[in-house]
Automatic annotation (TrEMBL):
<keyword id="KW-0808">Transferase</keyword>
<dbReference type="InterPro" id="IPR015422">
    <property type="entry name" value="PyrdxlP-dep_Trfase_small"/>
</dbReference>
<dbReference type="GO" id="GO:0030170">
    <property type="term" value="F:pyridoxal phosphate binding"/>
</dbReference>
<dbReference type="GO" id="GO:0008483">
    <property type="term" value="F:transaminase activity"/>
</dbReference>
<comment type="similarity">
    <text>Belongs to the class-III pyridoxal-phosphate-dependent aminotransferase family.</text>
</comment>
<dbReference type="InterPro" id="IPR005814">
    <property type="entry name" value="Aminotrans_3"/>
</dbReference>
<keyword id="KW-0663">Pyridoxal phosphate</keyword>
<dbReference type="InterPro" id="IPR015424">
    <property type="entry name" value="PyrdxlP-dep_Trfase"/>
</dbReference>
<dbReference type="Pfam" id="PF00202">
    <property type="entry name" value="Aminotran_3"/>
</dbReference>
<keyword id="KW-0032">Aminotransferase</keyword>
<protein>
    <submittedName>
        <fullName>Aminotransferase class III-fold pyridoxal phosphate-dependent enzyme</fullName>
    </submittedName>
</protein>
<dbReference type="InterPro" id="IPR015421">
    <property type="entry name" value="PyrdxlP-dep_Trfase_major"/>
</dbReference>
Length: 433
């Protein structure tokens, strides 16, 4: 209550804007992703690693638009590319050389990518990847994992954050609707425990005639920002090969863990990869990349083709900003993220030593989960004391640092060592108090 009172005192203008928002947005929100209590700080600008909020406070950003700004806010190269394009028009309903260049860059980097198609969000990319996967395999059922978030498409909005006591057994979870208004799962979606090679094998062996798509987030963000066991991913690849199931890696976030994405880091190549966030340089984006024989199903030469239209697909603003961003993300930058991320996670682990707290993450990503349980799957992560996490997150915001209410964080190339030091000092004080 004290922390919330302090927050309200620091952010009166955000409080007033939130009250106004309540008259136009349901509950004051138009994006679920920022449903912070009592309200999120409204932002007026972002520069490098610092946001300025509506009350004029400087906030060091450790979330960077949900991990989508690897160069920070308003990076000069991105601003320059976008400004130049802005003056030439923002969308043409015609292809540009920029989209071609971004496509070529991504195909060169993503091991599974021979072809690519752009969309406007990660959610759309997942929706299209599933459509391609079902068309290629000729089978309707999607297998996803409990606790994995893949965006807002209906067929993946199952068992993202179910109450464990209402979600069946840990080894055979009951698909649980994440939203009102979904059609049933019947023949469309099955849910399995993450990181359990045995459960995966037994389910696929029994049901392979119906399974068209296996959808995996190779860095499971919502489960607890963990990388899966090697054996689990290798088993997934082997089973998909054996039964002709299309293996999709959702790398909308995970792509930032390495120059060649999570698949490069983990050494397992999917059939399709969904991308988003960082590849758009701060503009709305999604993409599905993968095997030519799968994605070529959308070629006009196909008799029964996969359709995929979109007014703003690969629009030139996204293409130039994405290209400027991705070109700046050299192998050296990824090595820097890895080194800084490792040092940061080590300091956080030292800080959390002896407390019921887990520090996870890879590359530029880090997370603190308030549980004494080592996290290997959703049920482990769901033991967390979320109220503690969100209180700590609000106290951090009072001190001028933005993480998610679940204490997920990320660094960008604009993040300085001094900011990391100040953040860790603030966190140490909050945890101690
Ligand atoms: N897939 C994953 C793994 C994500 O983390 C997200 C968004 O956070 C999405 C898909 C959806 O992307 P978008 O929010 O751009 O629709």
């Amino acid at each position: 209550a004290e922390i919330e009172q302090a927050y309200r005192a620091l952010t009166p203008r955000s409080g007033a804007l939130f009250a106004r928002a309540g008259t136009v947005f349901p509950g004051g929100f138009t994006r679920d992703a920022i449903m912070r209590k009592p309200y999120a700080a409204f932002v007026t600008s972002g520069q490098g690693s610092v946001l300025t909020d509506a009350d004029g406070r400087a906030i060091t950003d450790f979330w960077f638009n949900a991990t989508s700004l690897p160069l920070g806010h308003a990076h000069p190269a991105v601003v320059e590319a976008a400004e130049r394009q802005l003056r030439k028009g923002t969308a043409y309903f015609a292809p540009t050389e920029h989209e071609l260049a971004l496509a070529e860059l991504l195909i060169a980097r993503v091991p599974s990518a021979e072809r690519i198609r752009f969309a406007n969000s990660g959610s759309e990319a997942v929706m299209m990847a599933i459509r391609f996967g079902r068309a290629f395999s000729g089978r309707p059922l999607i297998v996803k994992f409990e606790g994995s978030y893949h965006g807002s498409y209906d067929d993946v909005s199952w068992s993202v954050s179910p109450a464990p006591e209402r979600a069946g057994s840990a080894s055979q979870p009951t698909p649980t609707a994440e939203s009102a208004g979904l059609a049933g799962t019947d023949g469309r979606v099955a849910v399995l425990p993450f990181n359990d090679a045995e459960a995966l094998r037994s389910f696929i062996t029994a049901h392979h005639r119906e399974i068209g798509v296996l959808l995996v987030e190779p860095m499971a963000n919502r489960i607890g920002l963990i990388l899966p066991d090697d054996a689990f991913l290798r088993e997934a690849r082997a089973l998909c090969d054996q039964y002709g199931i299309v293996l999709i890696f959702d790398e909308v976030i995970a792509f930032r863990v390495g120059y060649h994405g999570a698949q490069g880091l983990l050494g397992v190549t999917p059939d399709l990869t969904t991308l988003g966030k960082i590849i758009g340089g701060g503009f709305p984006v999604g993409a599905v990349a993968g095997r030519a024989d799968v994605l070529d199903l959308s070629s006009p030469a196909q008799r029964e083709r996969v359709t995929h239209a979109g007014t703003f697909n690969a629009n030139p603003m996204v293409a130039v900003a994405g290209l400027a961003t991705m070109s700046a993300l050299t192998p050296e930058v990824f090595a820097g993220f890895e080194a800084t991320g490792n040092a940061l996670r080590k300091r956080l682990s030292d800080l959390c030593e002896g407390l019921p707290l887990q520090v996870t993450g890879a590359g530029s990503l880090f997370k603190i989960t308030a549980t004494g349980t080592t996290i290997r799957n959703y049920r482990d992560g769901a033991t967390a004391n979320y109220a503690w996490e969100s209180t700590v997150s609000l106290a951090l915001l009072n001190a001028g640092f933005l993480m998610t209410p679940g204490l997920s964080g990320v660094i960008s190339t604009a993040t300085t060592q001094a900011q990391i030091d100040a953040f860790i000092d603030a966190l140490a004080q909050i945890i101690a108090s």
